[in-house]
Amino acid sequence: MAIQPQEIVLAEPRGFCAGVDRAIEIVERALQKFGAPIYVRHEIVHNTYVVNDLKSKGAIFIEDLADVPPGATLVFSAHGVSKAVQAEAEARGFSIFDATCPLVTKVHVEVAKLAREGYEFIMIGHKGHPEVEGTMGQLDHGIHLVEDVQDVSRVQPAQTEKLAVVTQTTLSVDDAAEITAAVRARFPQVREPKQQDICYATQNRQDAVKVLSAQVELVIVVGSPTSSNSNRLRELAVRLGTPSHMVDSADELLPEWFEGVTRVGLTAGASAPEVLVRQVIDRIRALGAVAVRRMEGIEETVKFPLPKGLKIDAATGLEISQRVPETGAGRG
């Protein structure tokens, strides 16, 4: 008889970060204050469960602003948008709420500031990711994307006296460091961010996986295929020599993954809700696990403020509510 899993080890921290919490709350508050439908450009965060839940409440997700009727309320996703998208939305007269993660906004502000000083940029990130498109779209020229070390040798900036590096906030910390080192080797005068662009939550979850991987024989990552930070967690575990699978829901778990495995590590990307983690725990328990242990880890206390205009007025009779995941774990 095949050995079945005996223990589940939960990574700390895991799941929702402060930027994801804020983005979801913006959509929920807009629905509460203005009523359905609320239009959202792109998935508010990259998680299937979250998007479907908000759809059921009256959110409509679109990519093309032409699909939004005049006068409608529009929310920009947590990934941020380009200057062109922002200008088009304003020109169309929408009531706009910006759910861009403040850590992404920080990168946008830095790009705008240095561009005014004459800088060109090398951006480390994944082509086609909405955050990359939003950051590169802060300028109409002078920002060059590199996805790996090989790309660095092909970059041809117009000048190198004023050159700065920015990164997508959800990258692998180790990959970003390796690519940054290659940029520095080719352009020794390059300006690097005063503080690393990779967000605190991405780094914390990757650090937790590094500890977790050494304690288990298999790592399960809860996250959607489109989630950059979730993909990086699975890749990191594999790189450290621990087999790993990413699942969008408990239904995707395959019994054969657990054959011969006695200790399973479980984490979740920054856009994956705790309810999905609980369902995965229940499914692994059904396969034989009898114990769940929470790993020691950093407690995140970051909380980002909501945009003006989304405070629920007491005069409306609607209570101001705060979103809290079932266990409070992984909250920013």
Could you characterize what this model shows?
Helices cover 35% and strands 16% of the residues. The protein is built from ten helices and twelve strands. It has helices spanning 18-34, 48-57, 83-91, 102-116, 130-136, 149-152, 173-186, 200-213, 228-239, 274-286, and strands at residues 7-10, 38-41, 59-62, 73-76, 95-98, 120-124, 143-146, 163-167, 218-222, 244-247, 263-268, 291-294. The strands form three sheets. It has a five-stranded parallel sheet with strand order 10-9-11-1-12, with helices on both faces. It has a four-stranded parallel sheet with strand order 3-2-4-5. The chain has a three-stranded parallel sheet with strand order 7-6-8, with helices on both faces. Helix 8 (200-213) runs parallel beside helix 9. The longest helix is centred in the first third of the chain and has 17 residues, at 18-34. The chain is globular and about 60 Å long. Residues 319-332 have low confidence and may be disordered.
Low-confidence stretches: 319-332
| Range of strand content | 15-25%
Number of helices: 10
Overall shape: it is: globular
Largest sheet: 5 strands, parallel
Distance between the termini: 43 Å
Would you tell me the overall average pLDDT?
Answer: 93
Please state the structural category: alpha/beta
Q: What order do the SSEs take from the amino end to the carboxyl end, as H and E?
A: EHEHEEHEHEHEHEHHEHEEHE
Helix content: 25-40%
Instruction: Kindly provide the radius of gyration, computed on alpha-carbon positions and rounded to a whole number of angstroms.
Output: 21 Å
Total DSSP E strands: 12
> Taking strands numbered 1, 2, ... along the chain, how are they ordered across the largest sheet?
10-9-11-1-12
